[in-house]
Write a structure and sequence with these properties.
Strand order of the largest sheet: 1-8-2-3-7-4-6-5-9-10-11
Bound molecules: threonylcarbamoyladenylate, magnesium ion
Radius of gyration: 20 Å
Number of helices: 9
Shape: globular
Number of strands: 16
CATH superfamily of the largest domain: DHBP synthase
Helix content: 25-40%
Number of domains: 2
Largest sheet: 11 strands, mixed
Distance between the termini: 54 Å
CATH architecture of the largest domain: Alpha-Beta Complex
Length: about 350
């Protein structure tokens, strides 16, 4: 299959391309599209054959449910059993935007899309290209992140092409994703509502609207003895090809420790990389030093993390050390993804 890549910008051709992308979805094909979080791999959410194709293109197990993307609040009632007041309040406050809500599904949504669950994940993205594309596609676009299973989520079209070239009909190139980390997922079918995946919309922001909101215990732990409630969170995710280890402790101890390990890595003829901050990046003797930005800027870290992981792959880095990013809010989301990328390999310095 030839994958057509079209750049979408202010020019008038965009409208034609978006219409073409919409037709591909309506006839059962797949189109990758930009959102403000990461690029999505879209298919018709109401067509079971499209969802099967998505799993195949991603190389993803089919028990891992997809997010249904909508462009208007009027589209919601048809795909859910009912719209609870909690959903209306969150939509009012955070849609369109980086929030996914889990709701009871209606019969219109095929089990192929929800991985056999009787709930459905729904999100209204804020990216303008995403919204026009969803409307052109008939209003319901099922989309996981547009990476091959196990790879970092793609934050730009060229990364989608690396993973999906020849596997899908079209890629809409809308430039770099503005946020760079997947949406917050909140389960509204349980009491209290529970965050299953942390993101830019923090638990605290949700609490301001809903009162009590729980956070899934498995968000930062390797083995809390509990199965994660978002099925996708159980798979090893976002993994770079090289071995990634996170080092925790105070700055000086961390830089010393990492430099020691880098020296060993060089002796073993391994290409090394480091994930650091603006404050520390110059301290490391490594082949591929990368800064996620200022230590206090969690949003910058969120935006840069997946790009950096892919750059290590492109450079053939075999051994990667990362500083640790502790904290609340968006930092929690960054640390959640970093821990997954590292397969929870963490060294804690005293
Ligand atoms: O920002 C995002 O959410 C991006 C963009 C493209 O919208 N999409 C995304 O999709 O990250 P994906 O498939 O990579 O992650 C969706 C997560 C998976 O962990 C999946 O298990 C979970 O959502 N999920 C989907 N439906 C669910 C459901 N009914 N109940 C619990 N978890 C669900
Ligand atoms: Mg994903």
């Amino acid at each position: 299959m030839l994958t057509k890549v079209v750049r979408i910008d202010e020019q008038h051709e965009s409208e034609v391309s978006i219409r073409e992308a919409g037709e591909i979805i309506k006839s059962g094909g797949l189109v990758a599209f930009p959102t403000e979080t990461v690029y999505g791999l879209g298919g018709d959410a109401l067509n079971p054959a499209s969802s099967r194709k998505i799993y195949e293109a991603k190389g993803r197990p089919s028990d891992n449910p997809l997010i249904v993307h909508i462009a208007d609040m009027e589209a919601l009632p048809a795909i859910v059993k009912s719209v609870p007041e909690t959903a209306e309040e969150l939509a009012e406050a955070f849609w369109p935007g980086p929030l996914t809500m889990i709701l009871e599904k209606s019969d219109l949504v095929p089990e192929e899309t929800t991985g056999g669950l009787d709930t459905v994940a729904v999100r209204m993205p804020s990216d303008a290209v995403a919204l026009s594309f969803i409307r052109a596609a008939g209003g319901y676009v099922a989309a996981p992140s547009a990476n091959r299973s196990g790879r970092p989520s793609p934050t730009r079209a060229s990364y989608v092409a690396q993973d999906m070239d020849g596997r899908i009909e079209m890629i809409l190139d809308g430039g770099d994703a503005t946020l760079g980390l997947e949406s917050t997922i909140v389960d509204l079918t349980v009491e209290p509502p529970t965050v299953l995946r942390p993101g830019f919309i923090t638990a605290e922001m949700l609490r301001q609207k809903l009162g009590r909101v729980a956070e899934d215990e498995t968000l930062l732990s390797a083995d809390s003895g509990q199965a994660p409630k978002a099925p996708g969170m159980k798979y090893r995710h976002y993994a770079p090809k090289g071995e990634l280890v996170i080092v925790k402790g105070d700055v000086e101890a961390v830089t010393d420790y990492i430099n020691g390990r880098l020296l060993e890595g060089r002796r073993d003829n391994k290409k090394t990389g480091v994930i650091a901050t603006d404050e520390t990046v110059a301290c490391y003797r490594t082949d591929v030093p990368r800064s996620v930005g200022k230590r206090t800027d969690a949003a910058a870290a969120a935006k840069g993390l997946y790009r950096i992981l892919r750059e290590f792959d492109d450079e053939g880095v075999e051994l990667i050390y990362s500083e640790s990013f502790d904290g609340e809010g968006v930092s929690l989301a960054v640390m959640n993804r970093l821990l997954k990328a590292a397969g929870h390999r963490v060294i804690e310095l005293k």
